Amino acid sequence: MEGSSRIGVFLCHCGTNIAGVVDIKRVAEEIGKIPNVVVWDHRFLCSADGIDSMVSSIRSSGVDRVVVAACSFRTHEPVFQAALHRAGLNPYLLEIVSTRELCSWVHEGEKEKATEKAIRMVRAAIAKIRDNRPLERRRLPVVPAALVVGGGVAGIRAALDIADSGFTVYLIERGASIGGNMARLDKTFPTLDCSICILGPLMNAVAQHPNIRLLTYSEVVSVEGRVGEFVVKILRKPRYIKESLCKGCLICIAKCPARAIDEFNLKLSHRKAIYVPYPQAVPRIPVIDPDACLYLRKGICRTCEKLCPTGAVDFAQRGEVVEVRVGSIIVATGFEEYDISSVYEYGYGRYPNVVTGLQLERLVSSYGPTEGRLTVPGLGIEPRRVAIINCAGSRDERHLPYCCRVGCMASLKHAWYIKHLVPEAEVLIFADEIRASGKNFEEFYRRIRLLPGVYIVKSRASEVRANPSGTLSIKAYDPVLNREVTVEVDLVVLEVGIVASRSTEAVRNILKLGASPTGGFLLELHPKLNPVETAVDGVYICGAAAGPKDIPESVAQASAAASKVIALLSRGYIEIQPHTARVVEELCSGCRICVTACAYGAIRIVERGGRNVASVDEVLCKGCGSCVGSCPSGAIEIQNLKLSQVEAVMSEMQGWEPYVQRA
Amino acid sequence: MARMVKLAVFTGCFALSKQIAVELSTLRVLQHLNVEPIVPRSVNCCGFAFRGLYPSMSLYLTGRLLASLTASDPDGILTLCNGCYLMLREAVHRLREDRRLLESVRSYLRDEGLELRGIPRIVHPVELLHDIVGTEVLKGIKRTGDNNVLVATHYGCHALRPSTVPSFDNSVNPSKMERIVEALGFRARDYPERLDCCGAVLLATNPSLAMKLAYSKISGTARWGFHLLVTTCPYCFEMLDARQEAVMQTFGDEPRLPVMLLTQLIGLQLGLSEGDVALNLNLSPVDKVLPQIVRR
Amino acid sequence: MSREPRIIAFTCTYCAYAAAEAAGVSKLHYPPHIYIVRLPCSGMFKSHHVLKALRSGYDAVLWGGCHPPYDCHFVNGNYKALVRATLLKNYLRQLGFEDDRFRLEWIAAGEAERFASIAREMVEKATALPKLRFLKHSEVVD
Question: What mean pLDDT is reported for chain B?
Fold first, then answer.
């Protein structure tokens, strides 16, 4: 039946790109000899004229399958598929041969052989397309709700954007409050805006938005389903506080006798066992830390329970798993600082007065451990001289090979903090270079550089050493002086490289997303053209979990991801690509090997006529063909890329004998 | 430790010709630690001297050395000098990674009638004490010393670096020597100059810089209040112990840091006499700390 | 050398095939003896295809996928290819095929130069290999 099909072959010259190397006339001649094949050629097939003539040629000649020998399918498949559609053919009866990228461009010096190769490539495509079947894209409904994982500034922005367009948003945050790392910052570069003053209103907007369901102190446990209908299980960890009863008076915190290390202040201070992370926290509901609480550890105390005027403390609370259904997911799990104690030479973790940039933010913050007075940890004095070391752990083959993109500007901002709080202090910034390539960044750099007492040493610091008096000595090679310099300082600030937050990996594994080999940043579908999409349909990424970036970029990316989600939700349906796997049930023995090979859980064993056979869920199937490779019976095939088609391609490329028609 | 461990001992040129205390004290201590040293009949230079000038010659020499050291089929090769340790572990690493290189070294050796059969384990003295003998055995030694003695450890650059060649410990933050010192009942502490160079390799080409490095190492270490510095490498020992007086005088300072070999310290703990571990050869002011270590 | 080898390259859409296209875009020349087949993923690896290719007259087979661990567009197809290819390599050796007849390579989408140099190398090696001859059933002596 397929043997009787008529095939149209379109040969594109692409100006001289193809025709300059491949002898199109000769190709047309050779291909024209094949029975039931009609050949046309065009100087620029993808031009409006080329497409029009292609459509009319298909219509007038009555061909029912098309081979296009032109350029990459990646750029032009949609164009030619649309042409087939206009000509009344199913768009999947098209085969594109890349005679440009795979032949003319790489064999420029060998015209004769390139022409031969082009003929073989076109013949192979003809042999393959004879077995192609028309396929249909299918439509499935979309649940009009979205899930945003991570309540930092990116997650907040994305959630607000989606909620504003009228869809329900579930915003999940692992910690007790939303706000993320931005809440830790004292000011933002280059404007020196108060960070929490601009973030706070957004956090409150989230709390009050009628379309946002805020789930703090919660984690994603599992995600099943597919784009349009994800079923997400969320663990709500026990707060030991009834959220509905708590009024946020925080009386409970005052009398709590137990202390624990304060993670929000990056281990620079202590907090109570019952706590809100910081004064502006949203929601303003405390959490009881079970590892510190005297009652939960030893069964004594219960002071907070006695003090609470509304009876909101509930030690019997247990973790609970809730299930939500959403059409789309945004991952915005943010960043954390690289474990800088592994950069041994900088002494972090060995000397108390070596702090990270984020720790300095807490040290100067009005709601930090010192309430805004800058004192050196370990020495207890105001710093007289401070060294800021840029690229700590970054741009270093032993640690993180990439640039953190925020360290340079942060170092300038940190120099400003120090000069602002201790005007007579000297600040030395050790930096190979200052990368100030953002809006108003260079201006900010100039402003800081001209501050009296701020010095920029154009070099990487090689080592930080303690002196017996408790001060630190920095060693660096100074290219201006052309010698090693040693400077004694009271405080060292490391502008530490950033990596994706620890929880990113867990979410990534649940959603089966890709990640960069170092730093664990989530992988976008395409770094240039699809920066917020992922390989998993319906799952989008934004913020620093997708790569190092500053606040405005995170926010812009969050809005981009949100607009993708809004587009999907408001369209209301999804189309599924039809190149899925298909089981030839007569050949299937139900051995289950393909079930284990499938990374998407798309294959199940079902009973058909008293026999177990594999069955493919066409919505979950991505058409990767792992099952095809695994099947010992050749019983599972990708549609339009069947085993027989691969073999036909192989033999046509090999054979140079006259074309033999298949029965 | 059930079986006696057999190790081929490679002393190296410097410990043989100059710092003889290294070999003396090591062999003495090994007798007490269930390790059987095999002293090979013929050896050659480890190749260190040719490393920069003539790399292929250097590798050949190292290969030749490996062949003669493994002739008696030992459990491993114990190198007493950090330079030899670097050469041997680097060669072993390269030969393991590169089959073709191994074959070419073998073919050259065959011309001489030598055979490199297996690729042996290269053992550093610190590795021997920490991983093979074990800190538990060291803890079992009857204490004679004062627990408050604060000991500075000096690994020596070639024991740990370059970090791309596998070594017995973390190349930027090692800890095995500290654990040995603690097992012996002394206090060890990290200090900023811990991984600094002793200067010995520069002695031939840039002696004044070598002296400067040695000075900053010794004076830097001394200001942290250490009672004693221990090392295993004969070159480092030469620089920090034998030349300490010259180094300090060059910069108008006094020698004040007692320096011992780790094996000497262990020997004293085992109850050996000062002569047994060749302590009489030490030139740094070890007498200052001796009463606290050996209480008789 | 007058012999004209024929090599077939099975490449995954997202990495190895993209690298082949990128080689084209960058005009990196390589001999025309290598023919490229696009598969969705290297995880579609089927020993059958390799054996069939060798049987039907190709001198060598290249199987190209994405770099482990994370590059695979389909989660871990490259590992599936690796497992099956390792088994096949041993099997081919037992059957008496030279090692150069089959090669598994990880080629990232951006590694155009790597693709071209692998193509050049394979053609060069295949040129040195003898033409495969398969015994007819009647020739097999037991």
Answer: 91
Domains annotated for chain C, with CATH where assigned, are: 7-139 (3.40.50)
- B146 lies in the same domain as B279: yes
What domain range is B257 assigned to? 126-293
**pLDDT tens per residue across span A84-111:** 999 999 999 999 999 999 999 999 989 9
Distance CA A320, CA A510 (A): 19
Which tokens sit at B155? 């690994």
The token pair at A272 is: 């109570």
Tell me the ipTM for this assembly.
0.94
**Cβ–Cβ gap A653/C35 under 8 Å:** yes
Looking at the structure of chain B, the number of domains it has is 2
**Nearest CB to A466: which of B173, B192, B225?**
B192
With 80 as the cut, is the pLDDT of residue A657 above it? no
Residue A663, token pair as written in the block: 């029965």
Do B and C count as touching (3 or more CB pairs closer than 8 A)?
no
| Mean of all residue pLDDT scores within chain A | 93
- What tens digit of pLDDT does each residue of A285-341 get? 999 999 999 999 999 999 999 999 999 999 999 999 999 999 999 999 999 999 999
- The CA distance from B1 to B12, in Å, is 28
Cβ contact C32–A102 (<8 Å):
no
Walk me through the domains of chain A, giving residue ranges and CATH numbers.
Answer: 2-137 (3.40.50), 139-237+319-337+504-576 (3.50.50.60), 239-316 (no CATH), 339-496 (3.50.50.60), 581-638 (3.30.70.3270)
| Contacts of C74 by beta carbon, 8 Å cutoff, 6+ apart | A535, A599, A622, A624, A626, C40, C41, C43
Identify all chain A residues contacting C45, using CB atoms and an 8 Å cutoff: 629
Our measurement of the distance from residue C86's CA atom to the centroid of its chain's CA atoms, rounded to an integer in Å, reads: 13
Q: Report strand pairing: C7-12 vs C34-39.
A: parallel
Question: HEC profile for C13-70?
Answer: CCCHHHHHHHHHHCCCCCCCCEEEEEECCHHHCCHHHHHHHHHCCCCEEEEEECCCCC
